[in-house]
C-alpha cells in the first residue's frame, strides 16, 4: 500500500491523529504535497460520507467559543462526533489564528469525539478558505457527524464559509434597536438561523427584544424562495446556562431535513463543488505563474516586448501556451 492509501484507511477508521496529519498535508503549499493531498481527497471521496456542515459567524466577544464548547458537548452527549474548523481572515495577515484554538474550548478539546483545528495560515483569505474546505472533506471521511466552521469577519470570509456549509448560523449579542444597523446586510442575508447569545441574567430581557427585532428584520430583508416555511429564524440562546441550545439544534436538524427532502441539499453541494473546482483551477494557475521556470520565461518575454521584438499579446500567448507543459 502507498502512504496515501494507508493514511486514507486510517482516516476512514476515524483515527484522529491520521486526520490531523492529513489536514497538515492539505495545508501545505509544496507541489508534491498538493499532489498527495489531491490523491488522498479523491480516494476518500469514494467513501461518500457526509456530515452536517454548519457555518458559525460572530464578532469577537459574542461568545463563539463558549457556544461551540457547550453546543459541541451537547452533541457529543447525544453520541455524535463533532469537528471544529475555522476560517480566520486575520490569519492571512498575521500567520496566526484566534479561531478554532483549543485553549478556547478546553472541555471539548479533551473529548475523543471532538476534533478541533485552528485556521490554516496563508498569504490570502482564498487560500485559507480552500484549505479549510478540504479539511471539512477530511473530517467527513473520518466519520464526523457535525462539522462546525467558525469565522469572524467583515463579509468576505462569511461568503467563503457559506460556500462550504449546509447551513449558516449567525451568533449575535443582545443589543439596542439602533445597533441592529451594525450587522452587515450581506451577512444577515446569508443567515439561516440568528442566535442571540447571552440570553441569561440581566441580559435576558434585552435578548428577547433583540430576537424580536431580528426576526422582524429577517422578514423584511428578503424572501428566499428556496427557504422552507419559517426560515430564516431568530432564537435566544445562552452558551453559559445552555438554555436554548437544544432548541437551536432542533431547528438546524429540521432545516437540514427539509433541505435534504427538497433536493436543495444535493443541488447546493454540487454547486459548491463546481465553485471550489473553479477556485482551485484559478489558484493552481497562479501558483504556476510563480514557478521559477515560468517566471524566467515571463522575464524573457517581457524583455522582448520592451525591445519591440514581439507584441504584448503574442508574448502573453507564448507564456500561456507554455503553462500547459510542466517544468
Ligand atoms: P468569542 O470571542 O466570540 O469566542 O467569545 P467568547 O466565547 O470568548 O466569549 C466572550 C465573553 O462572553 C466571555 O467572557 C464569555 O464568558 C462571555 N459569554 C459567552 N457566552 C455567554 C453567555 O451565554 N452568557 C453570558 N452572560 N456571557 C457569555
What do these coordinates show?
Helices cover 55% and strands 11% of the residues. It is of the alpha/beta class. It folds into three domains: 1-46, Single alpha-helices involved in coiled-coils or other helix-helix interfaces; 49-261, Rossmann fold (3-Layer(aba) Sandwich); 277-323, no CATH class. It has a seven-stranded parallel sheet with strand order 3-2-4-1-5-6-7, sandwiched between helices. The two termini are 29 Å apart. The mean pLDDT is 88. The structure holds guanosine-5'-diphosphate. Guanosine-5'-diphosphate binds next to helix 4.
Instruction: Count every beta strand, where a strand is a DSSP E run of 2 or more residues.
Output: 7
Q: Considering DSSP H and I runs of 4 or more, what fraction of the residues is helical?
A: 40-55%
- Order of helices and strands, N to C? HHHEHEHHEHEHEHEHEHHHH
Q: What's the CATH superfamily of the largest domain, by name?
A: P-loop containing nucleotide triphosphate hydrolases
What compounds are bound to the protein? Answer: guanosine-5'-diphosphate
Number of helices: 14
Strand proportion, as a percent range, falls in: 5-15%
Let me know the average pLDDT. 88
Pick out its properties.
7-stranded parallel β-sheet, 14 helices, 11% strand, binds guanosine-5'-diphosphate
SSE topology sketch:
Blueprint: H1 3-12, H2 16-27, H3 31-45, E1 52-57, H4 64-77, E2 82-87, H5 91-94, H6 106-109, E3 114-116, H7 125-141, E4 146-151, H8 156-162, E5 167-172, H9 185-190, E6 193-196, H10 204-221, E7 233-236, H11 245-262, H12 264-289, H13 292-307, H14 312-323
Parallel strand pairs: 1-4, 1-5, 2-3, 2-4, 5-6, 6-7
Helix pairs in contact: 1-2, 1-3, 2-7, 13-14
Bound molecules: guanosine-5'-diphosphate (GDP).
